[in-house]
Amino acid sequence: MGRVEGSAVKEGGTRGGPRGYARLEGAIPIVYPPGLQERAAEVWDLLETGASALSEILLVEPPELEALLVADEDREEAPRENERPYPPGLPYFTRASRPPTLVLPQTLSPDFRPRTDATEALVAWHELAHAFLLRDPMPRSPAWLRELMPQALSAAVARKTGLPLEEHLERIRRGQGLAVTYQSRADAEGQMAFQNLLLALGAAAVDEFGDGFLGRLAHALWREQGIVDERRAEELLAASLGPGGRDWLGSRPEFQEG
Questions:
Q1: Confidence category of residue 191, pLDDT binned at 50, 70, 90
Q2: Least enclosed by CB within 10 Å: which of 56, 79, 243, 245?
Q3: 30-32 and 22-25: which strand pairing?
Q4: Cα→Cα distances 163→50, 105, 159, Å
């Protein structure tokens, strides 16, 4: 995870997280445990960079939000919707606290593959994108569309900020492909393959059409009334891509099988 040169990190008082945690103020304040100040500063830079880029792409202001860099031994104290803690090393966005919180683990789960210089930045921007998208109510929609958007947004942030993606995408291309209708959440390896497919598809769409389609798609979804089914999801995506979008989607292997 790389630090953005020239950032100004200001340390403030503790407001969230387990006892003894410190706080870095910013557009997205981050609360962090003792001994992890350098790591917290790196995450702070990633979130500042991501928030600025996402605001520009989506044409919205950053949502009210905090980040919590949680020590591995403190994960049970992190805010969450469910009674049980999430699996170790899993980052997530939760509205169980006020303000809502991005919970980022000290140690990222080994299930996140491939591991490249881009991995941790992409993971952080993915969760940040969820926070941006959920600033307003989102209709119920297919799992692939709900996850394609943050994956494509994280790829768009990478392109906008110059984060090299080619090694990461090449490793994904060498993996096994899946159709976008894949829904299983039971198997971590399968879910990671699903997320990687969506990242590759999102990056390809950004390269082909530019990142403007992501703002159009997000605003279209915020305006939707009722449930967005598979057919409507594809219609919205194709329309947001613009001229040639439907034919391009039809040519993609991710849409060739159900």
A1: confident
A2: 243
A3: antiparallel
A4: 11, 22, 6
- Beta pairing, strands 30-32 & 66-70: parallel
pLDDT given for residue 8 in this prediction: 33
Report how far residue 156's alpha carbon sits from residue 8's, in angstroms, rounded to the nearest whole number. Answer: 24
Q: What is the mean pLDDT of residues 91-106?
A: 94
Q: Is 32 exposed, middle or buried (0-12, 13-18, 19+ CB in 10 A)?
A: buried
- Which residues on adjacent β-strands are paired with residue 104? 69
Task: Tell me the whole-structure pTM to 2 decimals.
Answer: 0.89
**How close are the terminal C-alpha atoms of the chain, in Å?**
36
CB 43 within 8 A of CB 23: no
DSSP class of residue 23? E
Of the two residues 3 and 240, the one the predictor is more confident about is 240
Mean pLDDT of the chain: 88
Q: Which residues contact 102 (CB under 8 A, 6 or more apart)?
A: 28, 47, 65, 66, 67, 68, 91, 92, 93, 124, 127, 128, 131
